[in-house]
Amino acid sequence: ILSKRIVVLPGDGIGPEVCGEAVRVLHAVADRFGHAFHFDYQLMGACAIDATGAPLPDATLAACHQADAVLLGAIGDPKYDNNPAAPVRPEQGLLRLRKELGLYANIRPVTAYDQLLEHSPLKAERIQGTDILIFRELTGGVYFGEKGRFDDGNSAYDNCTYSRAEIERIAHRAFRAAETRRHKLTLVDKANVLETSRLWRETVQQLAPQYPSVALDYLFVDNAAMQIILNPRQFDVILTENMFGDIISDEASVIAGSLGLLPSASVGDAAALFEPIHGSYPQAKGKGIANPIATILSAAMLLDHFGLPEEADTVRDAVQHALDQQVVTPELNPATRYTTEQVGSFIAYAVLDIADCEMH
Ligand code: IPM
Ligand code: MN
């Protein structure tokens, strides 16, 4: 029996809806396996700006520091996207939270589900069997470098900095993951142009002898963007810096068939946060059409983090069951019209091992 405190940050747009379903599934896990999960709801993002003026209120940050894990829905609101002069933005809350919690490794699995092969715009025979684990550095690089304007606002800059220590700590995690998988690690960089990328290559290369069973190779990010679509099965673990990882993980989601399927874990030495890779999808807010699976699979990663692999696998099996039965939201099957809540409930029931879990 395990007792854990989970801070839930539902956020904006579809965030509360998809988080609600992931919490439903975690309740089912707690029931079936006899654990006690305590959920503490806090504000972050545009909803926090509306309520308090700050995207990451002090109370939220304090609660996250004390939690065993954080579950996040999504943040963002179009009223900020179209206003470059906005003094505070929802994204600042997420970026600060990642930094304050020291969540330097963002782990994004990309899987081609057999049930959805025909759904991807890519050819089924090309993507079948794809199983990639992306390690994206999350607290450094151009996202966190000095930024500003000069020349009366007519020029702008964003600095990109990395230290050897920042590269080593995530590289060790990526090598260790490769050791438990297919023993291949691909560093994605732009070492033909960027000095930071040359430091990445040099540092990762120096660590390689500590992991003799792992074959290390390198790709420039432009070529990697092409290879991910042309031949995704060639990849096992991908390691990359913050912005390249942001871009190629959205690209790789096309393989899965929907951005609504991809979970992520963001971990550091003292904290862990779990969130879908998709955004707040404001157009879908309140319509019951948002796919909760990415957040539910993020909850499965949270269970892995708690040292509960059987519970995590049960959640993943329940998701497979929903895909088998085509209990999916409209972007995956417009004919069936299951809602966010119906998909979440189906998966929660499957976790509880209810024999008759067909939808009525
Ligand atoms: C992501 C998102 C964030 C990022 C945004 C919302 C700041 O796109 O988690 O991938 O760029 O990291
Ligand atoms: Mn992104």
TrEMBL record:
Record field: transmembrane: none
Family designation: Belongs to the isocitrate and isopropylmalate dehydrogenases family. LeuB type 1 subfamily.
Protein name: 3-isopropylmalate dehydrogenase
Listed InterPro entries: IsoCit/isopropylmalate_DH_CS (IPR019818), IsoPropMal-DH-like_dom (IPR024084), Isopropylmalate_DH (IPR004429)
Entry GO CC: cytosol
Predominant place of localization: cytoplasm
PROSITE patterns for the chain: IDH_IMDH (PS00470)
Cofactor (UniProt): Mn(2+); Mg(2+)
Class of the enzyme per the UniProt entry, highest EC level: oxidoreductase
Cellular compartment(s): Cytoplasm
GO molecular function annotations of the record: 3-isopropylmalate dehydrogenase activity; magnesium ion binding; NAD binding
Record note on quaternary structure: Homodimer.
The protein's role, per its UniProt record: Catalyzes the oxidation of 3-carboxy-2-hydroxy-4-methylpentanoate (3-isopropylmalate) to 3-carboxy-4-methyl-2-oxopentanoate. The product decarboxylates to 4-methyl-2 oxopentanoate.
Enzyme Commission identifier(s): 1.1.1.85
Binding site for Mg(2+): D222, D246, D250
Cofactor binding note: Binds 1 Mg(2+) or Mn(2+) ion per subunit.
Site feature: Important for catalysis: Y143, K190
Residue span(s) of domain Isopropylmalate dehydrogenase-like: 5-347
UniProt gene name: leuB
The species this protein was found in: Hymenobacter rigui
